[in-house]
Amino acid sequence: MSGMSTEAPSERELLQAYRELMEDVALPDDEQTRNFAEHVAGAHSWYKHLPPLPPGRRFAFYLDRDAGRERETLQNGRSVYIDRTADTPFKFHYTWMTTAAYRKKFGYWNYAVGGPSAVMSTQPTTPEEWGRWYHLDAKWPLLLHRAGWVPLPRQITVASTCFVTNWIHDAADLHWFGANRPVYLAEYHARRAIWPDDPDVVRYQPFADRFSAAHGRDRSPENWQALDGEARTFWETERPLMRQRIFDTMLAARAATERFLASDA
């Protein structure tokens, strides 16, 4: 395909563009997949940036021809990707590595994090609204094709996403949440009202109740100190569960990608 039409591309054109992008992309092996799961768990200070309660934030794990490369924007506004090398002048993050080192360790794995697509004043009250709130129906993430940005096929997107809380990180500190505490509590209680039997909701309920009490009725230093101790105990059991979740999601994403590329879809 020489390129997509100037009009909004059809679903068929998007799927064909995705196939073109994946022509030379090798499926990562289990070691690369495990390496990337561990990398993502410590890739950022998630204890600062992710909620401590469900639903958490939506992560997508997918194969990307440009994984491990540097994105640049040209003067005409178009984006291109170039390899990172030892001569790359700006090494922007503590996880920075050359493209060659990245590909050897992780293959073509990449990830994206999505947050709410609406403000808290429009708190979702139904499963459908929750889907829109976290843009579960959106074309996300996007890959760069020569003719424009291309979303993952729907069947891969479904397999490649999961929800993650801050407990995935090696550190979990309640004091980072600050002004976001009422937001995280509202998200949790809204989800609990709709899906009271959701395994995450049930597992987090004792901690959520204590977190809510510390935020509301009793904000004494003694209460927060006690909650810190409970948080540490909860982190010890929740951290391996979160890490296994992203690894299992990556395995599902790899399998879905392989099935799609082998099909006539």
What does this structure look like?
The strands form three sheets. This protein has a three-stranded antiparallel β-sheet with strand order 4-1-7. A two-stranded antiparallel ribbon has the order 2-3. About 2% of the residues have low confidence. The chain is built from nine helices and seven strands. Helix 2 packs antiparallel against helix 9 and helix 8 packs antiparallel against helix 9. The protein has one domain. The chain is of the alpha+beta class and 265 residues long.
Reading the helices and strands in chain order gives: HHHEEEHEHEEHEHHH
pLDDT averaged over residues? 81
Number of helices: 9
| Rg over C-alpha atoms, rounded to the nearest angstrom | 20 Å
Largest sheet: 3 strands, antiparallel
**Overall domain count:** 1
Low-confidence stretches: 117-121
Short description:
The protein has 265 residues and is an alpha+beta fold.
Properties at a glance:
single chain; 265 residues; alpha+beta; three-stranded antiparallel β-sheet; two-stranded antiparallel sheet; 7 strands; 46% helix; globular
List the helices and strands and how they pair.
Layout: H1 11-21, H2 30-41, H3 46-49, E1 57-63, E2 69-73, E3 79-83, H4 99-106, E4 109-114, H5 127-133, E5 142-145, E6 148-151, H6 154-160, E7 161-164, H7 181-194, H8 199-215, H9 221-262
Antiparallel strand pairs: 1-4, 1-7, 2-3, 5-6
Helix pairs in contact: 2-9, 6-9, 7-8, 8-9
